[in-house]
Design brief:
It is built from 13 helices and ten strands. It is of the alpha+beta class. Strands 3-4-5-6-8-7 form a six-stranded mixed sheet. A two-stranded antiparallel ribbon has the order 1-2. Strand 9 and strand 10 form a beta hairpin. The relative contact order is 0.11.
Length: 487
């Protein structure tokens, strides 16, 4: 013990060395075991790879891979079928009744001889105009008060105010003028009250103010001999307009439901969308994005070849029948989508007056209609001079600023959107077994329209079956005629 006490320091140092060394040895063996296990797995993998390179993949692996690939193809086909069904859900072509007959035929697929022999161009334009009018009527539209309506209200207020003053004066001619003359103060007060009454009455007479030329109609009256391009553009125009109107009606329905019990009724005062200012549907599909990238930007600040100088803000005034098509638009930077072999892209714009709290509901209801994407939303004061896309805002039939929207603040909302139309439905689905187009999905787009929209047989937007449909000769600029026999 004495020896231990005298050498306690050495004993402690020896213990530390032994314990530390033992820990290091244990850690070494533990680490060494992990490294060995990792090396073993890698060696095994190398041997498996060597065996595969020597003998090839075994049959079981190939079978599993083929089955997986087939499942992926089946799932993709199912998705395409669902997409095509969704695309055409609300997009039925117009039905045309052959004159002096009970027979009706679909407007598309387009057949030149049938249109020519039965004058279906006139029938189409007449049916289209009625369909667009039905869309307007579904909004339960109203308009600002006319001058006559305002004057009528002013006269009523003059009579009421004069009677009130007469009663207060107990028969004394208080205005001191000739009998029947309206004193200036009463005339001025009656003007203010009469105008307010006229505006309030018209606001309660309908659900949405609709400007006279709000819809971008391809035909405003029946036309005897329309162009083939106009027929198809009118059908596209009807589909897009129908979706926009349906979104407005759905948004207003939600607002009316939330306002029940307030004794305010279903009118402009309780509506979400209070005014439809303008709808504009581009006449051309968006050009292929591949083609867009291939065209170099002009160095002189001008437009691309064949493109209008200002695609972003085209004039959207009333379009005269027979007007030429818009310049083809480029893919929007937000989505980068251009027309392709899978889908065609169509741009449109519309403007409404509404409280901003309903904007998300309007967008949601629009996108619920089909494959719509909101590209841009802009705001401006309602009725402020020049409207969206250079349109002159006017209230024909009423006085400027005579729309009454209620007590909640409103703005004019300009919305730009795009719609995707799947080619498997719009241009038809090819049945490879029967070597013809499917009876369920025949080509709806006329071949002449394809030739003008996507010039050149090597256009990146054209499928092989689309190219085979291109006409042998250029289509005439107007009306029927020409050799449209498919190749």
């Amino acid at each position: 013990m004495k020896l231990l006490r005298e050498n306690i320091l050495l004993v402690v140092l020896a213990a530390i060395v032994l314990l530390g060394g033992g820990g290091m040895v244990a850690a070494y063996f533990k680490t060494s075991g992990s490294v060995d296990e990792g090396v073993r797995k890698r060696v095994q993998m190398v041997r498996q790879l060597r065996d595969l390179s020597r003998d090839g993949a075994n049959g079981e692996m190939v079978e599993r891979a083929e089955k997986s690939l087939e499942n992926i193809r089946t799932a993709a086909k199912d998705v395409e079928t669902l997409c095509v069904g969704w695309n055409r859900r609300n997009y039925q072509v117009l039905q045309l009744r052959i004159p002096d007959s009970d027979q009706t035929v679909p407007a598309f697929p387009y057949d030149n001889e049938t249109y020519r022999d039965h004058g279906l161009g006139y029938v189409f334009s007449r049916v289209y105009v009625q369909a667009m009018q039905d869309l307007l009527n579904s909004l339960n539209p109203t308009s600002p008060p006319t001058q006559a309506e305002t004057e009528s209200q002013v006269l009523q207020w003059e009579n009421q105010l004069m009677l009130q003053r007469t009663m207060e004066a107990a028969g004394v001619d208080s205005w001191g003028g000739a009998s029947g003359a309206v004193p200036p103060d009463i005339a001025q007060q009656a003007m203010v009250l009469g105008r307010r009454s006229a505006m309030l009455n018209k606001a309660k007479a309908g659900e949405v103010y609709v400007d006279p030329n709000a819809l971008d109609m391809v035909f405003r009256d029946a036309v005897l001999n329309p162009m083939v391009d106009q027929l198809w553009q009118a059908q596209l125009n009807l589909w897009v307009t129908r979706d926009i109107v349906a979104a407005i009606n759905a948004t207003n329905k939600e607002a009316f439901a939330s306002a029940e019990g307030q004794d305010s009724g279903r009118n402009v005062l309780t509506a979400a969308v209070k005014r439809l200012v303008q709808v504009r549907v581009n006449e051309n599909y968006v050009r292929p994005s591949v083609q867009t990238e291939a065209v170099a930007a002009p160095t002189d600040g001008g437009a691309y070849p064949g493109e209008a100088p200002d695609i972003e803000a085209p004039d959207i005034g009333a379009r005269p029948t027979g007007a030429g098509p818009d310049a083809p638009a480029a893919a929007d930077p937000l989505t980068g989508r251009g027309s392709s072999r899978e889908y065609d892209v169509l741009h449109y714009q519309f403007s409404v007056v509404m409280p901003t709290r309903y904007l998300l509901a309007l967008e949601r209801n629009l996108m619920a209609q089909n494959y719509h994407t909101i590209l841009k939303v802009e705001f401006r004061p309602p009725g402020a001079g020049t409207g969206p896309y250079g349109m002159e805002v006017s209230e024909t039939g009423g006085q400027a600023g005579s729309c009454y929207y209620g007590v909640e603040p409103v703005v004019q909302v300009d919305i730009t959107g795009e719609l995707l139309l799947l080619t498997a439905w719009e241009r038809g689905t090819w049945d490879s077994e029967k070597q013809k187009f499917s009876d369920q999905f025949p080509p709806l787009v006329p071949a002449e329209v394809l030739a003008r929209q996507f010039p050149g047989a090597d256009n990146p937007a054209l499928r092989e079956v689309d190219t085979s449909r291109l006409p042998r000769e250029p289509a005439p600029e107007y009306g029927y005629g020409g050799d449209y026999t498919e190749r």
